[in-house]
Design brief:
By secondary structure, the chain is α/β, with parallel strands linked by helices. 46% of the residues lie in helices and 17% in strands. The strands form two sheets. It has a six-stranded mixed beta sheet with strand order 8-7-9-6-5-10, sandwiched between helices. Strands 3-2-1-4-11 form a five-stranded parallel beta sheet, sandwiched between helices. The longest helix has 20 residues.
Length: 333
């Protein structure tokens, strides 16, 4: 069974309520129908009154909940909640009454008010405008220091490497993490990979150096981050600094890091900065024809995930299923 099929199966075992916040997008409407028909999640579609055209109103007749935010009886309740949460940062009641009509803010406030479990947006909205309300209102999960992101990569015909399912992080959010931040990204990504794939995470802290073959501040950061992870989670299989080939190719690992418990069999790849991570996942996606699911946000109190604006309706369904699993995981903590 392919990775996404397993995720969808797992989502169906404990149905979560997932918001699709951009109901004016035809791709979102199509995804809502698919999620509903497959019984992946209880889906709520949000839309502004000006965009509540005939196509989206059909969803209600099909058993899918559609909320026109300006007509919601909860609008004043959410506006008051937003004001209370943000008044210390200078938000006025007038501003709160205006922002609550934004479907992204409305969806996050629904989650804050425990009326939904997760949210997916971004097909028509920038990453900043999707995640800013989540960070402002939901904030980080307990004992989490940093919100970051990862891609789940499913690589077909992965000849000569150790696995075909990987997590790549951070490829979409934290630009230039310091050693402490890099360690937090590694820890959270290992946990996410474990839950989503049911595979034991083997974490490689990537660099252009393996075990001191090069030196300098860039290498030192990765070494420091690796040591922090080992100190905090001594039972986690993690190693670094490792070059990419040493991390995933057994024949190379046997020469460069023969005594490592991770080298040659890593499945969680932690890139030293966003440039490397973003380039790396896109290279693999395009040149290896891999399925890339993400960026998946991790570390929020409740899951909110951002879509690429070039996404398909199938991509939205996939991210909704992953979001449902993240919600399941949060409820177990």
């Amino acid at each position: 069974m392919k990775l996404l099929d397993r995720i969808v199966f797992q989502a169906k075992q404990d149905i979560q309520t997932i918001i699709l916040a951009e109901g004016r997008d035809q791709r979102v409407i199509e995804a809502a129908r698919e999620i509903h028909s497959q019984k992946i999640a209880e889906v709520i579609v949000l839309v502004n009154q000006v965009d509540a055209l005939e196509e989206i109103t059909k969803l209600s007749k099909e058993g899918i909940q559609v909320i026109i935010v300006e007509q919601s009886p909860k609008l004043n309740t959410y506006a008051k909640l937003l004001f209370e949460l943000r008044k210390s940062k200078g938000m006025t009641e007038v501003e709160a009454n205006q922002w609550v009509k934004n479907t992204i803010y409305f969806g996050v406030l629904m989650m804050k008010n425990m009326e939904a479990d997760g949210m997916v947006a971004g097909s028509m909205t920038s990453t900043g405008d999707v995640l800013r309300p989540a960070l402002q209102i939901l904030r980080t999960a307990p004992n989490v220091k940093l919100v970051s992101s990862f891609f789940l990569m499913d690589i077909p015909d992965a000849r000569g490497i150790s696995a075909h399912e990987y997590a790549f992080s951070d490829c979409g959010l934290v630009v230039n993490p310091n050693a402490e931040e890099l360690s937090e990204i590694a820890i959270q990504t290992a946990k996410s990979f474990d839950y989503l794939t049911k595979e034991e995470p083997r974490v490689a802290m990537l660099s252009f150096s393996t075990y001191g073959s090069a030196s300098g501040d860039l290498v030192d950061k990765v070494v420091q981050a690796t040591n922090i992870v080992k100190d905090r989670y001594p039972n986690l299989k993690v190693d670094g600094e490792l070059q990419l080939d040493a991390a995933i190719v057994p024949s190379v690992a046997s020469k460069k890091a023969p005594n490592s418990l991770v080298a040659g069999q890593a499945n969680v790849l932690i890139f030293p900065d966003l440039q490397a991570g973003n380039i790396g996942y896109k290279l693999v996606e395009r040149m290896a024809h891999a399925d890339a699911y993400g960026p998946i946000t991790q570390g929020l109190a409740r899951p909110v995930n951002d879509l690429s604006r070039g996404c398909s309706s199938k991509d939205i369904v996939a991210v909704a299923a992953i979001t449902a699993l993240q919600s399941q995981q949060n409820k177990q903590l």
